[in-house]
Amino acid sequence: MMHLYLVRHGIAVDRDDPDCPPDTERPLTPKGMKKTHAAALGLFALGVKPDAVLTSPWLRAAQTAEIFCEVIGFSSSRIVCTDALKGTSTPAELLRQLEKLKAREVVCFGHEPQLHLVICEVLHTRVGIADLKKAGVACLTLERLSPPKGQLLALYPAKTLRLLGK
What we know:
single chain, alpha/beta, Rossmann fold, 5 helices, 6 strands, 22% strand, globular
């Protein structure tokens, strides 16, 4: 069985900002970094101790992963950057990547709607389960990865994580 934490990136530079870089290079804002750090303290308070951490190569997700890892005590040098978490990837790509890990507890950093589609794939539903807000976390248990079978244990909006971290 695997515990899987899906984390949406923190608040990034607005796409409508005239100085906004290409989507793959949009960084977290200073406010996004601060709120992401506070949310990471909540995940730490929950006792999350991953065997593996995966992130999208897109800048805002990679920055979010680094902030969370610093807080939970996971070496940033061990973060695996994978195209399976890009905003354009499919749930099947991530599930294949997870299958190779043989880990018991994994934290993944990515984007919406891709993370939500992963939840739907695991739960065998097409119905929108929840809106994963920026720096929010979905916690699932996976009994198996192929075909996927699991349960959604919790959804933690960033605001709730910030409260847990105080």
